[in-house]
Each structure stands twice: as C-alpha cells, then as structure tokens.
UniProtKB/TrEMBL annotation:
GO molecular function: histidinol-phosphatase activity
UniProt source species: Sporomusa malonica
UniProt protein name: Histidinol-phosphatase
Domain Polymerase/histidinol phosphatase N-terminal intervals: 5-86
EC assignment: 3.1.3.15
Pathway membership, UniProt: Amino-acid biosynthesis; L-histidine biosynthesis; L-histidine from 5-phospho-alpha-D-ribose 1-diphosphate: step 8/9
A cellular component term, taken from the record's GO annotations: cytoplasm
Family indicated by similarity: Belongs to the PHP hydrolase family. HisK subfamily.
Matching InterPro entries: Histidinol_P_phosphatase_HisJ, PHP_dom, Pol/His_phosphatase_N, Pol/histidinol_Pase-like
C-alpha cells in the first residue's frame, strides 16, 4: 500500500521533539511519502514544555531550506498544532496572521477551573496525578467539554487526535452525545478530523479517533480526513499507516492534505 502523507509531525521546533527537519524529511522520503506536514506545538499554557517556545521566523526559514533541499522528492508542508485556542484566543488570532499550510487545534489539558484561565495541578491529560484523582470517565468527559468549546470557536483546519486521552488511558471513552455535538460543529465549519496513529505504537489497538467517531463524523456529512503519526522523532514517521489508510478507505472517507489552508484530496 502506498503511504502518501504524514500530516502530523514534530521537529526540534517543538520542545518535546528530538530530530531536525532535514532528518525528518529524509526519513519521510526513504519511507516513500509524497507529503510531510510539520505541525509544531504552539502553546501558551505555562505548564506546557512548549510554553512560548515556537519561533515562527526560524521555523519558516527551516521550512524554506527543507523545500529547497527536498522539494524534488517530497512536498514539505508547514503547520502548527495550537493548544487550547479557546483559552488563548488573542494569541491564536495573532498566530493566524502568519502563513501556514495547515492550522491544527488540540486539547492537551483539562482540569481548568470554570472561572477563567487557571489550570489546577496535574492538568496535563496524561499526568499521573490526574490519573489518581480522576476517574477515566471524568477525564474523557472534561476533555470533550473543552473540545466542544474549541470547535465552537473554529478558525482552524484540522482537529487533532479527537479522543486523545485514549492514548494514555489505553481505553476508549466514547460519549455519543457530546461527540455528536463536536462532529456537528466540525462538519458545519468544514473542519477535517485526523486519524492519529500514535496510540498504536504505545500498545493500544486503536487510533485516536478510530471507527466509532469516524463513522459519527461521516454520518453527519463530514468527509475530510487526514492521517498523522504525531511523530516526535524520525523513527515514528508514518508508523502504523497501513492500519489508518485501511480505516479511511473502508469507511469511504476522503483522505487529503492541506496546502495554503485548502483541503486537497490525495
Ligand atoms: Zn497533540
Ligand atoms: Zn502533535
């Protein structure tokens, strides 16, 4: 099976990733990809390792250099994975004035107090403190509540790893009703979902999301899907893509990438 695009990859421009863009491009070419999209973390949450870490100018220079070096072998696409844009709306708007091929939104934190922007201790969704104090059900529910606010805000192209606590909890937390509201908003706004393969390499048997949520999205009239490994090092580029491509084809979703923030079927 031909693996076309890895649409969710991190380099050293994200605080938690290890490898540089050239090495990631070289790996993607070696693995036969036609597209690689760099989606670096942009975070304004003081608890996050990537807090104020992203540097747009240096990043866009690196993208240009990667295009010069690898452009005849692979299309290098630029993007960001913006954490909790509904909480950091001013920063989000400002970031959107820069040029990207794709803007992804993600939730990585829960446990916010309901008054304002205050994150209690142990808020990262896979933090062991949170594991101890919250039931899995509560983690998923609070996560989906935050996610609903993100999709209502909109302004982005792809919603990253829709049921992400699965990656750490190693169980599915399907809540049909609130996910129904989330996918309804996504479909109305023309926002794509991604099939993120990262749980597979962490020992779980599903992507995030997998068939249940994908089916809900398609049943609501959604079509646009991208596939991403969420690689944080070369080894992880396009890992387990056969599974994800099969999933997308089986459900007759439209697989694509974003270029200049427009969806292109691949
Ligand atoms: Zn993420
Ligand atoms: Zn990511």
């Amino acid at each position: 099976m031909r693996l076309l695009a890895d649409s969710h990859v991190h380099t050293k421009f994200s605080a938690d990733a290890k490898d540089d863009m050239f090495d990631m491009c070289k790996t993607a070419v070696d693995r036969g990809l036609s597209y690689i999209c760099f989606t670096e973390h942009v975070d304004y949450n003081q608890f996050d390792a990537s807090y104020h870490y992203f540097n747009y100018d240096k990043y866009s220079d690196a993208i240009e250099r990667a295009r010069e070096k690898f452009g005849d072998k692979i299309q290098v696409l630029s993007g960001i994975e913006f954490g909790e844009p509904h909480v950091y709306q001013k920063e989000f708007e400002k970031m959107l004035s820069n040029k990207f091929d794709v803007v992804m939104a993600a939730i990585h934190y829960i446990g916010r107090d309901k008054v304002g922007v205050h994150w209690v201790d142990g808020t990262y969704e896979y933090d062991h403190v949170l594991f101890k104090d919250y039931t899995n059900e509560r983690i998923f529910h609070e996560y989906y509540e935050e996610l609903l606010q993100v999709v209502k805000l909109g302004g982005f192209d792809v919603l990253a790893h829709l049921d992400n606590p699965k990656r750490y909890l190693k169980e599915s937390g399907h809540e049909e009703e609130i996910i129904g509201e989330i996918v309804h908003e996504l479909v109305n706004a023309g926002i794509a979902i991604e099939i993120n393969t990262s749980p597979l390499r962490r020992g779980y048997h599903e992507c995030t999301p997998d068939f249940e949520i994908l089916k809900q999205y398609l049943d609501f009239g959604g079509t646009r899907v991208s596939i991403g490994s969420d690689a944080h090092c070369c080894r992880e580029v396009a890992m387990n893509f056969d599974y994800a491509v099969n999933l997308v084809r089986e459900h007759k979703a439209t697989l694509g990438i974003f270029k200049n923030r427009c969806f292109i079927t691949i």
